[in-house]
């Protein structure tokens, strides 16, 4: 995912420095080329050899160290960098950068970089809240630096409060958003639906389906990485929503219908990947009735057809739906494409091993009015990439 990308990790003197070793390992697994810069104080918390072992590159500390190739000096390194993450960022280094002070390898390199620069403060709560530190953070934001708000929790000093550096995964998501993908969806607005809906039968039971939401979440994440402003309308799942995505949580098909229609007109692309329950109880059973009668029956009615409504209402939006079929997959999906006025439909064959609900892989066929393209089995993230590629190609 990060092949050919140059990531600079700038580590300052904080107990949280140990987390960056794991981050460096995570980045290496994605094939990033990583260079670690450290302040002298940072070496008191973690040994530079650790980073050199994990990254395969020399860890840079001293501006005047001649024991490395000339092409890796701070200006050259700054030109190569695709993203710089200063983490943990101490109050001292934040103040230096905000004040234009470049007196070591780390600050000179950060100053020379023209790529995106991300700051992750980590310090004692009172230090972080100090008006001078807050003013310095404001200065950094003013000059285009992105500052990650620290977590609140138990700190190394024993205090409980704001100032804790976020997890390695959170830091990774900031890096991925910046350089994991070409920004070919910059300026676009995309709405994705995902997950199952639930229709109440009584206070305990409900009608739903086996949708995990994985395909929809992968699509939302892919569009976000490509620079789109993404709104994710999701039923209840066990998944962590993608970062940097606006999430609207819903329960019933009516909730999803209302949320989608509310935001539909402002979108450029709508992808309905949710597995909405087809039926709902006409009159959910009251607890009192259950206790009195002991037995009860329910009358079902169809839920709102979100795709059909959107197809009839669209005015320039690209509309992509999903089709779950157990037989005549292509023929039935083509009929839905036409009947619901879709621009594209992605057909899943639920009988194929490795496809459908709950899996990390999928096998789909992408269908438009003029083309049918069957994809081999691949991860849902890879499927999402192919689907979005096809959407952008058809929108041209």
The CATH architecture of the largest domain can be named as 3-Layer(aba) Sandwich
The largest beta-sheet arranges its strands as 12-11-8-13-16-17-19-20
CATH class of the largest domain: Alpha Beta
Q: N-to-C terminal Cα separation, in Å?
A: 26 Å
Secondary-structure map with pairings?
Layout: E1 6-11, H1 18-29, E2 33-38, H2 48-55, H3 74-80, E3 83-89, H4 91-98, H5 105-112, E4 116-121, H6 125-129, H7 131-142, E5 146-147, E6 151-154, E7 160-164, H8 168-179, E8 189-194, E9 199-200, E10 206-207, H9 214-225, E11 229-234, E12 246-249, H10 253-264, E13 269-272, E14 279-281, H11 287-293, E15 300-302, H12 306-313, E16 318-325, H13 329-339, E17 344-349, E18 361-362, E19 364-367, E20 372-374, E21 378-379, H14 380-395
Parallel strand pairs: 1-2, 1-3, 3-4, 4-5, 8-11, 8-13, 11-12, 13-16, 16-17
Antiparallel strand pairs: 6-7, 9-10, 14-15, 17-19, 18-21, 19-20
Structural features, described:
The protein is of the alpha/beta class. It folds into 2 domains: about 5-180, Flavin prenyltransferase-like (Rossmann fold, 3-Layer(aba) Sandwich); about 190-395, CoaB-like (Rossmann fold). Helices cover about 35% and strands about 25% of the residues. It is built from 14 helices and 21 strands. The chain has helices at about 20-30, 50-55, 75-80, 90-100, 105-110, 125-130, 130-140, 170-180, 215-225, 255-265, 285-295, 305-315, 330-340, 380-395; strands spanning about 5-10, 35-40, 85-90, 115-120, 145, 150-155, 160-165, 190-195, 200, 205, 230-235, 245-250, 270, 280, 300, 320-325, 345-350, 360, 365, 370-375, 380. The protein has an 8-stranded mixed beta sheet with strand order 12-11-8-13-16-17-19-20, with helices on both faces. Strands 2-1-3-4-5 form a 5-stranded parallel beta sheet, sandwiched between helices. A two-stranded antiparallel ribbon has the order 6-7. It starts with 5 loop residues before the first strand and ends with a helix.
